[in-house]
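Lab notebook, design round three. We kept the backbone fixed and only want residue identities now. Task for the bench partner: fill in a sequence for the structure below.
Input structure tokens:
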């Protein structure tokens, strides 16, 4: 593995396309629960987008395991470094688990996971109302957890971009950002 100074274009493309899809899916999920009129159309959109996210998440994880990521700043406190690593792995886990649980939930309800047209995926869970109920609950709670992780991730990215100005945000920004010159920290003045 080669050392990385920034994420490569594929990692950036996967990151930002997944970010857009995840935000869209969270809105679609809320709208599905809020509107019975739009529910069938939203479900027809939600299912294939969920499978697309599953494929992208798997590709992203494989890519992540094969390439070094840019190092975090050396002056980052240990607890922030640990939180960054833990939150990234929790994001990967939830991005894989969420669509799999959704697919299993639809399977347990006895419905096909229809992609586009007549293309349907095979069931991955037995048709069972009790299993469906448990998976539906898990899917709903995992959606909330994923939203919390996304908001935490966004807050951390903005912290690095606007407060620390340490170049971390620039490593994944969808556009190239010149790394700011190192600035003296207030506690370094002594």
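Proposed sequence:
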């Amino acid at each position: 593995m080669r050392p990385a100074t920034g994420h490569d274009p594929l990692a950036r493309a996967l990151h930002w396309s997944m970010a857009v899809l995840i935000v869209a899916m969270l809105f679609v999920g809320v709208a599905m629960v809020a509107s019975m009129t739009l529910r069938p159309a939203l479900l027809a959109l939600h299912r294939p987008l969920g499978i697309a996210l599953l494929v992208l998440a798997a590709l992203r994880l494989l890519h992540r395991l094969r390439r070094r990521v840019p190092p975090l700043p050396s002056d980052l406190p240990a607890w922030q470094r640990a939180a960054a690593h833990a939150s990234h792995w929790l994001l990967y886990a939830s991005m894989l688990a969420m669509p799999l649980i959704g697919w299993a939930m639809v399977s347990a309800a006895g419905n096909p996971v229809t992609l586009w047209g007549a293309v349907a995926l095979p069931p991955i869970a037995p048709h069972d109302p009790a299993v469906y109920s448990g998976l539906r609950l898990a899917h709903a709670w995992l959606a909330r957890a994923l939203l919390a992780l996304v908001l935490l991730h966004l807050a951390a990215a903005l912290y690095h971009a606007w407060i620390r100005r340490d170049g971390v945000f620039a490593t994944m920004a969808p556009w190239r950002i010149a790394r700011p010159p190192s600035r003296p920290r207030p506690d370094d003045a002594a």
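Keep this in mind before ordering anything: The chain has four helices and two strands.
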